[in-house]
């Protein structure tokens, strides 16, 4: 999971009112990323596409515990019981997404052994015989 923000505008606020100053939105977004994950925000579309191509081979962490159909699409539930450095980095990026969509969301304590993480993925077919999942 990588971030490539594209910010477009017609005018800066300072051109409308001399009293107001535009926020540096990219800097504000970066401040929300976990410190170890600052490299997940990329500034080039080419680099972003390169990361996307690398992620085609992604396989979910943990154990597949359930499958179900939702709106004609196969959903898969994966349970992660044991942590690893790779999973911790993945979880940090996934939790960053939650902060944007869930009011009052907070990061989990990955050092607490009582935590078990569950992810639901949509099974996608890239081309005949090749599968991928999306969070």
UniProtKB/TrEMBL annotation:
Indicate whether Lyase appears among the record's keywords. no
Question: Which terms does the UniProt entry file under GO BP?
Answer: subtelomeric heterochromatin formation
User: Which keywords does this Swiss-Prot/TrEMBL entry list?
Assistant: Acyltransferase, Transferase
Gene Ontology MF terms? histone acetyltransferase activity
* Record field: catalytic activity: L-lysyl-[protein] + acetyl-CoA = N(6)-acetyl-L-lysyl-[protein] + CoA + H(+)
Which stretches make up the Histone acetyl transferase HAT1 N-terminal domain? 1-103
Alphabetical list of InterPro entries matching this protein: Acyl_CoA_acyltransferase (IPR016181), Hat1_N (IPR019467), Hat1_N_sf (IPR037113), Hist_AcTrfase_B-typ_cat-su (IPR017380)
The EC number of this protein is 2.3.1.48
* SUPFAM superfamilies the record matches: Acyl-CoA N-acyltransferases (Nat)
| Any GO CC annotation of this UniProt entry | nucleus
Pfam families in UniProt: Hat1_N
Protein's UniProt keywords contain Acyltransferase: yes
Q: Which family does it belong to?
A: Belongs to the HAT1 family.
Q: What is this protein called?
A: histone acetyltransferase
Organism in which the protein naturally occurs? Anisakis simplex (Herring worm)
Give the classification, highest ranks. Answer: Eukaryota, Metazoa, Ecdysozoa, Nematoda, Chromadorea
């Amino acid at each position: 999971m990588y971030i490539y923000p594209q910010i477009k505008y017609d005018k800066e606020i300072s051109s409308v009112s001399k009293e107001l100053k535009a926020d540096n939105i990219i800097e504000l977004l970066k401040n929300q990323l976990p410190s170890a994950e600052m490299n997940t925000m990329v500034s080039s579309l080419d680099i972003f596409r390169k990361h996307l191509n690398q992620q085609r081979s992604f396989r979910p962490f943990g154990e597949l515990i359930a499958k179900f159909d939702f709106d004609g699409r196969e959903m898969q539930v994966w349970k992660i019981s044991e942590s690893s450095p790779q999973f911790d980095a993945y979880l940090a990026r996934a939790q960053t997404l939650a902060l944007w969509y869930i009011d009052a969301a907070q990061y989990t304590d990955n050092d607490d052994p009582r935590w078990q993480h569950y992810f639901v993925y949509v099974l996608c077919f890239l081309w005949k015989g090749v599968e991928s999942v999306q969070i």
